[in-house]
């Protein structure tokens, strides 16, 4: 602060003549700062030129830059010559990415901390004060600008000729709509095409042919394929049934234990779904009624089905009623039976809507 | 990487500890045999006079099964009852669960259970492999049931890619993509697959321990089981991560933690240094 | 004609002159070089976001050369054996190729992802700094709004980018997003089918997300960031109160060279940290997740951390459905509230906060000086409340991982979250408020009575008192000087802050020489030697 007052005392109110040959470069810089309303109030070299401290810092910064060079070279060498192709097990290729990261990181940190040390330790310290000038414009300026803008309106004469304004608006609105139309028109898509939100791949084919339940590899399923206490993800046996084309069709086929099956049958009967089970087998939609994740964490002793996304829990033996978490609707049940050849088929499509809820779900 | 080392170290310790365990086991065995003999005498006398239905159906046990029965009567009978018929409120009947179930539960240390709890935890096993085999043989001969094939390496020449696909359909929902396990309802959980051996995975699929669904041989064929085991052992466990330290493979949760604990902390300290007055 | 002699030394000056002739650059350039920036560590947090955005652009451009934004089905035939022969989308296959068959592709992918996480994290940290110091007050409300928008646009950028590889985990996220869109009353199904081009997942969403992720959203981000920085430049940075600092000036360093050097160096450090993390920490190993299939899911399915609070709110929401018995019946599913309404409220509250606070305090003045959080207890407490709300939601977003790893019941975690969401924020408000008042009081105490010296004195009547070192020369008989006014800046609380211990000896292993005693170059102003320090006594007159 003492330097501050001293400088103020030195400096006259008159702007300096920057062409004065007696002026040092720093004095010209100071004058420039002054013209930008900046006062350099404190300026102090941190190291004495030629001193041990300066040499030490210079060496440190130089070492950092050289480290960068070495690390970058190492990066290139590794990038080109290190064996990088994936191989099973534990080999050199597993260290390719870490080595690249380490060398690149060291290279960048070297140059970063080098620059920072240079700027922080070797440059003189300064404290400058600049005026903010964040006052609003003078009332006079405000008035002039305001009047100018109002005069523009006068020149256009919208007030005197209102028809112009109205017709311009009438012209512009459709133009705006024209801009939006291709975007909206191109993107918009009828959600209820083919009643797609309410049907799945299990809807009986032409002529009422029942759809088989198949596995992910396309094989149909016999009752003996699922052990007691077992679960199997099944799909509709149609073209593209095991694909994301029928993302709402994956179903969980569960073989219940005898006593659980009895509970489940009783629950089914209460709901009027008396014939949805076949033997001790039940099939519920795998798509959670909450947000659409595959709810498939089946606990075979508690008969709970957990969804891993938001932890909704469904009780399989009670019509897959939600018993915990944010889901509000039971998982839809697929009515199943076994056809003449002994394979599982869907008696009909689901009788409830699959997947997350939406406004117009009845 | 570290968990693997631990595992290896654990294995070594177990190997080194084996003679001790065995001798203790043998001592216990001796006592058990004597006890069993006494029990059998008493039991034999009982069966002669009582109109026992079960006892008459039982074919004679093999030598290994007899050894197993002796072990059973010492360590398991409290909860699973005489002749493994179960005790109401304590332990289920083991008739028909097969040696697969015994092998899974006992070799992973889950049985004998320390106390009644929501789910049996993996512990250091209390029985040697030989004893596990004998116990399994006993239960197998009592009521039949699924069995794990012979051998310790059950995934030779299996197809990892096919196993991966099966794993993602059937296993990952509970055991997670990385095989680290996950939470189930009300304190139950699917355990991590990292410490599991080939035989244990195979046995678990066959028997559906605790809340795990059963994946019988009709549903997932023995070849497919081998594929799944190959995927777990080779890809998830043996294969080192390609992109550096895997942060425990918990997914975005630990990644989010890392960006704050490593990234933000490092950069905040840097900015403190940059702006600090020296 | 005589050839003019080439004078290399005069070349820079001549070039500069020629440039100024054409562009009149000298005056504006001088202004730019001279602009003063205040210096404080917390002013560098926003830069982390800016620099990670630059890294995002650099690595992102690299990724676009190899990524194929298509959902056409292909059979994988790359290097990674455990997936060979698996049918998958072209997008997923090309992401695998980026990881296994493009040399150095994996580190680029990982750096891109880490940079994205860092971008969002530093935005949040920067936002907290601005909030708790009151830097959003007039005249900077516009910049606060732009900043909040940047968070949400960054959120979109993150989500679209996260979905692009079309792997099992991100596909599950996309499925949830479609469920969220479906939950919007009246128009939900129309919006969803318009975005996905039919029923979920359709075949076009990846290409749509791609163009949004590489063109539309980055364009918007660049525009918003430019305005954000432009406004900081125009309105000049806020500063902390302190000696010589007023509402009308900026005290700091000129932009060149010191400030610019620091910025450049810091950029390299941010870049370096991202490179280290990108190489050493594996992120989003898509090869374990497999291609997205509607029936495949993993335990512990989570979104990236900045989306996790929405996942958490969804998990905590009770199953309250509103059904409207009109015609066939209509429903508002429970998913709607935590994922559409809650973010809507958050956007509204956060953008409007500067105006709400100004209205409450009837404070419409310009504020260029920051406030210490303790000096605005109500604001700090509101902030603490918001932070704790967000943290409870974020933790709940990972509650299954916590439940599994710490052996807690999953259902108990959900209930803890539900109760915590109601209980913790008010508690945080109260605690923060009391803390602020306590800190304020301590500041005033030190100003009035001085710094605790740790010296205990026994009075003649047997009482023990601690000797305080007043901050002003003493005048009265009780050893107190005139009470100092609090000026909104740090009050020294320890003796060494008053210089009682003398300057530290510099050097790590061995002392290096002391700084200069005298000016060395003629351009430098003279530097005065340090004034001799007086010994500090017990505070009484000697």
TrEMBL record, chain A:
Keywords: 2Fe-2S, Cell membrane, Disulfide bond, Electron transport, Iron, Iron-sulfur, Membrane, Metal-binding, Oxidoreductase, Respiratory chain, Transmembrane, Transmembrane helix, Transport
Domain Rieske: 279-345
Segments traversing the membrane: 61-84, 96-118, 163-188
Record bears the keyword Iron: yes
Protein's membrane topology: Multi-pass membrane protein
Source organism, top-level taxon: Bacteria
GO MF assignments: 2 iron, 2 sulfur cluster binding; metal ion binding; monooxygenase activity; oxidoreductase activity, acting on paired donors, with incorporation or reduction of molecular oxygen
Any Pfam family: QcrA_N
Positions of region (Disordered): 1-20
GO CC annotations, alphabetized: plasma membrane
Subcellular location(s) per record: Cell membrane
UniProt xrefs under PANTHER family: CYTOCHROME B-C1 COMPLEX SUBUNIT RIESKE, MITOCHONDRIAL (PTHR10134)
Entry's family note: Belongs to the Rieske iron-sulfur protein family.
Protein task: Iron-sulfur subunit of the cytochrome bc1 complex, an essential component of the respiratory electron transport chain required for ATP synthesis. The bc1 complex catalyzes the oxidation of menaquinol and the reduction of cytochrome c in the respiratory chain. The bc1 complex operates through a Q-cycle mechanism that couples electron transfer to generation of the proton gradient that drives ATP synthesis.
The name this protein goes by in its record: Cytochrome bc1 complex Rieske iron-sulfur subunit
Species, as recorded: Micromonospora chaiyaphumensis
Automatic annotation (TrEMBL), chain B:
Boundaries of every Cytochrome c domain copy: 63-143, 158-236
Post-translational modification (record): Binds 2 heme c groups covalently per subunit.
Membrane-topology annotation of the record: Multi-pass membrane protein
Binding-site residues for heme c 1, renumbered to this chain: 76, 79-80
UniProt main location, coarse: membrane
Keywords: Cell membrane, Electron transport, Heme, Iron, Membrane, Metal-binding, Repeat, Respiratory chain, Translocase, Transmembrane, Transmembrane helix, Transport
Spans through the membrane: 256-275
Annotated compartments: Cell membrane
GO CC annotations, alphabetized: plasma membrane
Keyword Lipid biosynthesis in annotation: no
Example of a GO MF term: heme binding
Family annotation (InterPro entries): bc1_cytC-su, Cyt_c-like_dom, Cyt_c-like_dom_sf, Cytochrome_c_Oxidase_Subunit
Binding site for heme c 2: 171, 174-175
Enzyme class name: translocase
Catalysed conversion reaction: a quinol + 2 Fe(III)-[cytochrome c](out) = a quinone + 2 Fe(II)-[cytochrome c](out) + 2 H(+)(out)
Superkingdom field: Bacteria
Enzyme Commission number(s): 7.1.1.8
Quaternary assembly: The cytochrome bc1 complex is composed of a cytochrome b (QcrB), the Rieske iron-sulfur protein (QcrA) and a diheme cytochrome c (QcrC) subunit.
The protein's name in its UniProt record: Cytochrome bc1 complex cytochrome c subunit
Biological classification of the source: Bacteria, Bacillati, Actinomycetota, Actinomycetes, Micromonosporales
TrEMBL record, chain C:
The Cytochrome b/b6 N-terminal region profile domain, residue ranges: 15-241
SUPFAM superfamilies noted in UniProt: Transmembrane di-heme cytochromes
BP GO annotations: respiratory electron transport chain
Compositional bias of kind Basic and acidic residues: 527-542
Segments of this protein annotated with the region Disordered: 517-542
Topology of the protein relative to the lipid bilayer: Multi-pass membrane protein
Major location category of this protein: membrane
GO molecular function, one term: metal ion binding
Protein name: Cytochrome bc1 complex cytochrome b subunit
Organism of derivation: Micromonospora chaiyaphumensis
Source taxonomy: Bacteria, Bacillati, Actinomycetota, Actinomycetes, Micromonosporales
């Amino acid at each position: 602060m003492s330097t501050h007052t001293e400088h103020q005392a030195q400096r006259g109110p008159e702007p300096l003549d920057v062409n004065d040959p007696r002026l040092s470069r720093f004095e010209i810089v100071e004058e420039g700062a002054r013209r930008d309303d900046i006062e350099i109030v404190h300026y102090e070299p941190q190291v004495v030129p030629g001193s041990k401290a300066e040499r030490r810092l210079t060496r440190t910064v130089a070492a950092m830059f050289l480290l960068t060079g070495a690390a970058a070279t190492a990066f290139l060498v590794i990038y080109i010559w290190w064996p990088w192709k994936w191989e099973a097990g534990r080999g050199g290729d597993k260290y390719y990415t870490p080595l690249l990261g380490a060398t690149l990181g060291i290279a960048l940190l070297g140059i970063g901390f080098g620059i920072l040390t240079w700027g922080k330790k070797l440059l003189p310290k300064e404290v400058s004060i600049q005026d903010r000038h964040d006052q609003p414009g003078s009332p006079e300026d405000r008035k002039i600008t305001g009047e100018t803008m109002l005069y523009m309106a006068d020149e256009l004469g919208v007030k005197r000729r209102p028809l112009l304004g109205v017709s311009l608006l009438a012209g512009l609105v459709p133009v705006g709509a024209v801009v939006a139309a291709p975007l909206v028109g191109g993107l918009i898509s009828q959600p209820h095409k083919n009643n797609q939100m309410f049907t799945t791949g299990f809807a009986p084919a032409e002529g009422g042919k029942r759809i088989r339940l198949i596995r992910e590899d396309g094989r149909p399923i016999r009752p003996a394929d699922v052990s007691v206490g077992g679960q199997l993800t099944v799909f509709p046996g149609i073209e593209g049934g095991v694909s994301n084309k029928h993302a709402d069709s994956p179903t969980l086929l569960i073989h219940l234990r005898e006593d659980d099956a009895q509970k489940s049958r009783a629950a089914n009967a209460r709901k009027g779904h008396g014939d949805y089970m076949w033997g001790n087998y039940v099939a519920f939609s795998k798509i959670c009624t909450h947000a659409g994740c595959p709810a498939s964490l089946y606990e075979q002793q508690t008969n709970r089905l957990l969804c891993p996304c938001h932890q909704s829990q469904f009780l399989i033996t009670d019509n897959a009623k939600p018993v915990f978490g944010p889901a509000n609707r039971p998982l839809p049940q697929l009515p199943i039976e076994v056809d003449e050849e002994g394979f599982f088929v869907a008696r009909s499509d689901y009788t409830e809507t699959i997947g997350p809820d939406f406004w117009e779900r009845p | 990487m570290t968990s693997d080392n631990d595992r290896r170290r654990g294995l070594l310790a177990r190997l080194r500890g084996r003679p001790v365990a065995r001798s203790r086991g043998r001592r216990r065995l001796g006592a058990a045999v004597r006890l069993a003999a006494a029990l059998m005498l008493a039991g034999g006398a009982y069966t002669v006079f009582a109109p026992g239905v079960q006892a008459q159906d039982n074919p004679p046990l093999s030598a290994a099964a007899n050894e197993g029965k002796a072990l059973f009567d010492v360590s398991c009978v409290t909860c699973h009852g005489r002749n493994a018929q179960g005790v109401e409120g304590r332990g289920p009947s083991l008739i028909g669960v097969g040696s697969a179930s015994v092998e899974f539960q006992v070799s992973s240390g889950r049985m004998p259970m320390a106390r009644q709890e929501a789910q049996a935890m993996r512990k250091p096993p209390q029985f040697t492999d030989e004893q596990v085999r004998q116990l399994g043989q006993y239960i197998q001969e009592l009521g039949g049931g699924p069995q794990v094939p012979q051998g310790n390496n059950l995934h030779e020449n299996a197809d990892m890619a096919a196993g991966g696909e099966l794993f993602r359909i059937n296993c990952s929902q509970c055991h997670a993509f990385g095989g680290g396990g996950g939470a189930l309802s009300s304190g139950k959980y699917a355990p991590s697959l990292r410490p599991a051996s080939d035989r244990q995975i195979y046995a678990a699929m066959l028997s559906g321990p605790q809340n795990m669904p059963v994946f019988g041989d009709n549903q997932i064929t023995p070849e497919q089981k081998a594929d799944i085991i190959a995927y777990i052992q080779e890809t998830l466990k043996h294969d080192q991560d390609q992109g550096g330290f895997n942060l425990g493979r918990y997914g975005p949760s630990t990644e989010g933690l890392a960006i704050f604990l490593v990234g933000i902390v490092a950069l905040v300290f840097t900015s403190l240094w940059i702006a600090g007055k020296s | 004609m005589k050839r003019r002699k080439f004078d290399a030394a005069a070349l820079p000056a001549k070039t500069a002159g020629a440039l100024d002739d054409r562009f009149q650059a000298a005056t504006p350039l001088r202004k730019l070089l001279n602009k003063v920036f205040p210096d404080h560590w917390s002013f560098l947090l926003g830069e982390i976001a800016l620099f990670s955005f630059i890294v995002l652009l650099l690595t992102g451009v690299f990724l676009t050369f190899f990524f194929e934004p298509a959902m056409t089905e292909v059979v994988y035939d790359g290097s990674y054996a455990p997936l060979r022969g698996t049918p998958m989308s072209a997008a997923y296959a090309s992401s695998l190729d980026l990881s296994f068959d493009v040399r150095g592709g994996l580190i680029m992918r990982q750096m891109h992802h880490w940079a994205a996480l860092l971008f969002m994290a530093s935005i949040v940290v920067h936002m907290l700094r601005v909030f708790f110091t009151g830097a959003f007050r007039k005249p900077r409300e516009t910049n606060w709004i732009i900043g909040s928008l940047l968070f949400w646009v960054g959120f979109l950028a993150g989500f679209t980018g996260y979905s692009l590889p079309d792997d099992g985990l991100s596909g599950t996220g996309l499925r949830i997003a479609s469920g969220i869109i479906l939950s919007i009353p009246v128009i939900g199904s129309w919006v969803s089918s318009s975005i996905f081009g039919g029923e979920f997942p359709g075949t076009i969403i990846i290409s749509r997300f791609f163009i949004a992720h590489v063109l539309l959203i980055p364009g918007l981000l660049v525009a918003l960031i430019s305005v954000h920085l432009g406004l900081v430049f125009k309105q000049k940075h806020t500063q902390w109160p302190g000696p010589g600092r007023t509402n009308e000036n900026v005290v700091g360093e000129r932009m060149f060279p010191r400030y610019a050097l620091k910025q450049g160096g810091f950029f390299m450090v941010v870049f370096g940290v991202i490179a280290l993390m990108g190489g050493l920490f594996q992120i989003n190993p898509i090869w374990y997740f497999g291609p997205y299939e509607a029936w495949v899911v993993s335990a512990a399915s989570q979104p990236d951390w900045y989306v996790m609070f929405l996942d958490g709110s969804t998990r905590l929401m009770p199953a309250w459905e509103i059904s409207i018995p009109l015609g066939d019946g209509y429903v508002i599913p429970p998913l709607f509230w935590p994922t559409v309404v809650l973010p809507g409220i958050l956007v509204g509250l956060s953008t409007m906060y500067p105006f709400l606070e100004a209205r409450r305090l009837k404070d419409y003045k310009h504020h260029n000086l920051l406030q210490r959080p303790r000096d605005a207890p109500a604001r700090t407490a509101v902030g603490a409340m918001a932070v704790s709300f967000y943290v409870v939601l974020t933790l709940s977003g990972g509650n299954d991982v916590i439940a599994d790893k710490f052996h807690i019941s999953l259902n108990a975690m959900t209930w803890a979250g539900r109760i915590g969401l109601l209980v913790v924020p008010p508690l945080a408000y109260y605690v923060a408020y009391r803390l602020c008042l306590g800190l304020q009081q301590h500041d005033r105490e030190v100003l009035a009575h001085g710094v605790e010296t740790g010296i205990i004195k026994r009075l003649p009547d047997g009482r023990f008192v601690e000797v305080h070192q007043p901050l002003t020369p003493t005048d009265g008989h009780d050893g107190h000087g005139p009470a100092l006014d609090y000026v909104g800046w740090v009050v020294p609380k320890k003796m060494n802050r008053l210089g009682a211990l003398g300057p530290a000896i510099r050097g790590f292993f061995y002392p290096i020489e002391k700084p200069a005693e005298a000016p060395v170059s003629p351009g430098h102003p003279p530097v005065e030697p340090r004034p001799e320090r007086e010994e500090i006594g017990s505070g009484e007159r000697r």
